[in-house]
Amino acid sequence: MTRQRILAAAELVFARRGLQGARIREIAEAAGVNAATIYTYYRSKPLLYEAVLERGVLPLQELLAKFTASRGASEAEQLLGATIEHLAARPQLSRLIYLEAISEGSYLPELARRWLRPLLERTVGELEIGSESSQWDASLFPLMATAFVHLSFGYFALAPLLREVFAGDPLSEEWVARQKRFVIALTRQMFPEMSGEGERRPSPSDRSD
Amino acid sequence: MTRQRILAAAELVFARRGLQGARIREIAEAAGVNAATIYTYYRSKPLLYEAVLERGVLPLQELLAKFTASRGASEAEQLLGATIEHLAARPQLSRLIYLEAISEGSYLPELARRWLRPLLERTVGELEIGSESSQWDASLFPLMATAFVHLSFGYFALAPLLREVFAGDPLSEEWVARQKRFVIALTRQMFPEMSGEGERRPSPSDRSD
Amino acid sequence: MTRQRILAAAELVFARRGLQGARIREIAEAAGVNAATIYTYYRSKPLLYEAVLERGVLPLQELLAKFTASRGASEAEQLLGATIEHLAARPQLSRLIYLEAISEGSYLPELARRWLRPLLERTVGELEIGSESSQWDASLFPLMATAFVHLSFGYFALAPLLREVFAGDPLSEEWVARQKRFVIALTRQMFPEMSGEGERRPSPSDRSD
Amino acid sequence: MTRQRILAAAELVFARRGLQGARIREIAEAAGVNAATIYTYYRSKPLLYEAVLERGVLPLQELLAKFTASRGASEAEQLLGATIEHLAARPQLSRLIYLEAISEGSYLPELARRWLRPLLERTVGELEIGSESSQWDASLFPLMATAFVHLSFGYFALAPLLREVFAGDPLSEEWVARQKRFVIALTRQMFPEMSGEGERRPSPSDRSD
DNA sequence: GATGAATGAGCCTTCATTCAT
DNA sequence: AATGAATGAAGGCTCATTCAT
Asked: Which chain B residue has its CA at the smallest distance from A108's CA?
C-alpha cells in the first residue's frame, strides 16, 4: 500500500521535474511518508524512477499486445482510441515519456525497444497492408506513425500549455473525446481505402456529445 | 562574445535537463568559462533560463509576424515549412518549449501569450477562411492547430527517441525535408479546397531528394 | 542536546565575528556536528543568530523582572551586582549585544524594546526617587543609566582588549569581583543620599578578597 | 585623493561589519570606485583594514602625547573632553576599536601597545598622584581608567542602540556636550581633591546649553 | 515497516583578487 | 590610475542517503 502511494507520488513529481529535478523529499511529502521510508522500497532515486517508468510502460505494452493478434480495417482506429483513453486516465504517463525522450535519459533505449518500436512496427505494418492502393509514399510511413504518437501522447504532454491558451481543461472528458474524434477522423481522411465497405464511413464532423 | 557562448551552452543544457535539473557548472563547462563568469552576465539561474527562452521565442514571434500580412491559399504551407526549417536550425528550441510546458514552468504564460496564442489565432483564422466549404467541424480547429505544433515542434522534441528507434538522424537534412513534405501533404489532404486551382496540386508522394 | 551544543557554539562564534562574519562551518566544527545538521534545527544563519540572541536576552529580561517589584535604597546595587555576576557567567553575551549595536543589526529594535529600554526606565525610575535631593541634573539620568550599561556589559565586551593590556584575566573571579566592587562604590559615590542610614556605608576600598 | 575616498569608505564599512564581514565591493561602491581600484592602493583587505585602523589610532596617540608633558589638576578633565570631542568628529573610530576588541582581531596587540596602555598609564599615573589622599583603593585604578574608556569610546560605539532607545541623536552636538559634561562631573565627583582650590568647582548640574 | 537525526557531497552564489587594456 | 572581465576559493544551503531506534 505504501509502495503504491510512493509510486503514485513519484510519478507525479517525476512527470513535472524529470529525474534530475525531482526531489526525494517532495515525493515523500506527496506520498505522505517520511523521506527515509522511500528507501525501504527503492534503493535509490534512479531505481525509483525506473520503477515508475516500468509501471507506466508495461500497460502500454499490454495494450499493444491486445491488438497484435487480430488485424483489420478498424483495428488502427481502435488502437488509437484505446491509447488515448488509456493516456487520459494516466495524465502523467505522456509527460514522463516525453521528458525521458527530451532529456535523453538512460531509460530511452528501453522505451524504444519495448514501446515505440513495437508500436511503429505494428502501425506501419498495419498501414502497409493497404500501401498498394495508398496515395502515400512508403518512406513517409515512419513519420506518419510518429505523428500518431504526437497526436496521442503529445496532446497530453502539452496539456499545461494548452490549458494556458484555451479556456477549458484539455484533460476533461469533453476535450479528450474531441481529441479522440479528431485523430480518428484524421486517420480516415488519410486512409480512405482502409475504411471497410460494410462500415459506414463517418464524416469527421460527427459529434458524439 | 562570452555572453553568446554562455547562452548557447545554457540552451544546450536547459534543453536537456530543464531549469531545475540543469547545473550551472555543466553550463559553464560547455561554454568554456568559469562558473562564476556566468554570474557576471546573469544574476541567477532562472534569469539565465529566461534569457535563453527569450532568445528562442523572439525569432518565432518574428517568423509569425512575417506571415500575418498576406493571406492566401499557400500561406499556411509556407508558414509550416518555414517553421520546420527554423526549428531544424535550432534543435534545442522545441525541447526547451516542450520541457517548459511539461514542467509547468513559470515562463509558460509568456510562452502562451507571445507564441502559441498568436500562432493558433493565425492558423485557425487562416483555416476558417475556408471553413464554409470545409468538411471539418469548427470545434476541431484548435485541435488541428495544436496538431501542427506537434508535427513541427514535437518532431524535434522527440528527436532523441526517434534516433533510438530509426536508423537515421531525425535532424539530418534528408529527414527534416521528408517531415516537411509529410506535414504539407497532410495539410493538403485535410484541406483540399484550400489548394488554389492555378497551383498544381502535388501528390504526397512527391520526392525532392 | 544537539540543539544546545549548536546554540553554545553559535554564541561563541557570533560573539567573535558577528552575524555576517560568522561561518556556519566554523560553528559546526565548534559544535562537533556536520554543517548540514545545523539546518535541521535552524533554517538559516540569521534565524540561528536570532535564537542565540533570544537565549541571551531572555534571562536578562527575567533578571530585570525580579527587581521590578521591590524598590529601595540598595535595590540598584543588587541589580548591578546580579547583572555583573550574570554576565561573568555568560562571557559572550555582552559581546553579542555590543556587536549587534555596533553593526546596527536588525535585532537592534528588539534589543532596545526588551532589554535596554526596561533597564533604563527601571534604573532611571529608581534614581529619580532621590532626584529631589540629588545633586545631578535630571537630563543626565539617561546618560548615567547608559554609563552603568558600559560599566557592566562594556567591561565584558572589552575583555579581550583588557586581557591584552593587563597581566590578568578580566573574566577571573578576582577581577570580576573587583569590577563589581568598583561599580557599586561608584554608585554610592554618586548617590550618597541613597545609602540608607541603618546600613553601614562601606568604603570603596573595602576588599572582599 | 582616491586613496582618501577609499579609506573613508572603508572606515565606514569596517566600523559596521568588521574585517570579516566587510565586503570589498561595498567599500568600493561607498568610495565611488571600481573594486579593482582598491587593489591599486592596498594589496589585500586586511592591509586596507590595518591602514584604516592606523589612520584612526595615530591621532589618538598624538592626542595623548599632547597631555603627557604638562600635568595638573585639570589635565585629566581636558584629556577627557578632548577625547570625546575627537571621537564625536570621527563617529566610526570607537566602533572600529570596539569591534576589533570584541573580535579579538590581530590588530589588538598594536591597539593595546600604542593606545590603551599609554592611555591607562597616563591616566592612572595622573590619578596616583593624588592617591594618598584618595578614598579609592589603588587596585581599582585600572578599572577606573577603563571606565573612562567606556564612558568616552563606548558611548559612541553604542550610539546605534541609544538612538533606538532615546528619541534624539547621540551624535548630535547637544547630546555629545551633555555626555562630556556628565563624564567630567563624574570625575570631579570621584576625585574632589583633584579640583584645585583656585578653580571654581562646577556643579554637575551646570548646563552650557 | 517507519522515522528523526545526521552527514558527505554537491549546488548556487558570492567574494577577494588578478590581469589585460 | 582605473576598470571590466574573469576566476579559484569559499560560503550558505540542499540533497540523497544512512542508521539507530
From this structure: B161
